[in-house]
Write a structure and sequence with these properties.
About 20% of the residues lie in helices and about 40% in strands. By secondary structure, the chain is of the alpha+beta class. It has three domains: about 1-115, Lipocalin; about 130-220, Quinohemoprotein amine dehydrogenase alpha subunit, domain 2 (Lipocalin); about 245-400, Glutaredoxin (3-Layer(aba) Sandwich), CATH 3.40.30. The strands form four sheets. A nine-stranded antiparallel β-sheet has the order 4-3-2-1-9-8-7-6-5, covered by helices on one side. An eight-stranded antiparallel barrel has the order 10-11-12-14-15-16-17-18. It has a five-stranded mixed β-sheet with strand order 23-22-21-24-25. A hairpin with a 2-residue loop joins strand 7 and strand 8. The radius of gyration is 22 Å and the shape is globular.
């Protein structure tokens, strides 16, 4: 499989040698489509500001992309932080190529044309889905079933919002209700999500596509009072433990443990994460901002990275890219390579009942005792929920610092 994937990448590169005329992106608005099945396409929009800069839009989110390379008739667009690459030939200002995540051996056909509209609308919306929705994904499969909360705002045909789950949110979703048909999508480089469905005033029955490698049904019913279980109660210490222990290397090969001098008599946040994880990125941005304001206090943050990169060299390259892009100045240690298996992660941290989500944060007090474990991260796309989280977070940290 790896050999075949490499040949596909080489064929893309080889095609760029056939035409010697240099082509550049036009400074304009584009609608891109990823082909997630034979008949289903996932759209997103971006604006080319100049030959080396473009912005990807997902509702209120704007992703600035500045790693763009041209080779003859083709363009290679490297998404920030994540490994994802858009590789395409430029033909009359139309882009035709692939969305590629090499480390996961994933290729999704990709096309982009000049257009400002994410989804076309030709019918007035039959209902307004603004509000909260009690949601179940894969409702008929006991093995795959999980719960979520949909939160949406609708103006005319246009919708923004997200789904919150016990492990994090599906980030900034944008779309339409066209008649009684719902369509929502997002693309951030790591994830390409599409939600389709049939809506009524009180129900949604639909399908969720994650790129071209995953598809599952979901059902939702309107419920303004619905709440997910507390994120502070899902992960906990196994019986007999009251603290966390680990020893993992940093980028310089130094082994770092919670017993090190820098963590003594300080409040410590231990962030279980991965550089490939968009919710971890949202959390890392918030923690970086928080740490920069509080680093003169008795507080430290240390992240444990669980990476699918096959080698330590590639994993640390991804860690450095993440730190450089968002200015992280707390240590990120390499806890695992070659897999993002949560079961394998739990083996590295046997004092936890499980690792349910990337990210997960363990709050350690000045005496080295675990005081709280927060599973998942519902970030800026969740609106009021994110505001509530920040208030709870800062209040609890201030309490630990005051002890």
């Amino acid at each position: 499989m790896r050999y075949i994937f490499t040949l596909l990448i080489l064929s893309i590169l080889f095609s760029c040698q056939e035409k010697q005329t240099q082509e550049f992106l036009s400074f304009d608005d584009y609608r891109a489509e990823l082909q997630v099945s034979d008949t289903v396409f996932l759209p997103f929009t971006f604006k080319v500001k100049d030959a080396n800069n473009l912005t990807v839009f997902n509702a209120e989110e704007q992703i600035e992309v500045n790693e763009i390379e041209y080779r003859n008739d083709s363009v290679f667009i490297q998404m920030p932080v994540f490994e994802a690459l858009l590789a395409a030939k430029i033909e009359n200002q139309t882009l035709i190529g692939n969305f590629i995540i090499e480390g996961k051996e994933r290729i999704v056909p990709f096309k982009a044309e000049k257009n400002t509209s994410r989804f076309d609308v030709n019918t007035k919306a039959e209902t307004d889905i603004s509000g909260n929705w009690e949601t179940i994904f894969s409702p008929k499969s006991e093995a795959d079933k999980y719960i979520a909360k949909g939160v949406f705002k609708q103006e005319g045909n246009q919708i923004t919002g997200t789904f919150l789950t016990e492990t994090g949110d599906y980030r900034f979703l944008e779309g339409v209700v066209n008649g009684n048909q719902l369509k929502l999508s997002t693309f951030d480089g790591a994830n390409a999500f599409l939600f389709t469905g049939t809506v009524t005033d009180s129900t949604i029955n639909g399908k969720f596509y994650s790129g071209n490698h995953w598809k599952e049904p979901f059902t939702a019913k309107r419920n303004e009072n619905y709440e997910l279980p507390s994120a502070n109660e899902l992960t906990y210490l196994n019986e007999g433990y009251d603290s966390l222990a680990f020893t993992f290397p940093d980028a310089n090969g130094n082994l770092v443990s919670l017993t090190d001098e820098r963590f003594k008599n300080k409040v410590v946040l231990v962030q279980i994460m991965g550089t490939w994880c968009p919710n971890c990125l949202d959390e890392s941005k918030y923690y970086t901002e928080f740490y920069n304001k509080k680093k003169d206090k008795d507080i430290e943050i240390v992240a444990l990275a669980f990476e699918y990169a096959k080698t330590e060299e590639k994993a640390f390259k991804g860690i450095k890219r993440l730190k450089d892009r968002i200015g992280i100045n707390y240590p990120i240690l390499l806890a695992q390579t070659g897999t993002t298996s949560k079961a394998k992660a739990q083996e590295k941290l046997p004092m936890l009942n499980h690792v349910l989500s990337y990210p997960t944060t363990v709050f350690v007090d000045k005496k080295g005792k675990v005081r709280k474990i927060h599973t998942g991260f519902n970030g800026p796309a969740t609106g009021e929920k994110f505001v509530e989280f920040k208030t709870e977070f800062t209040t609890f940290i201030d309490l630990l610092l005051s002890e």
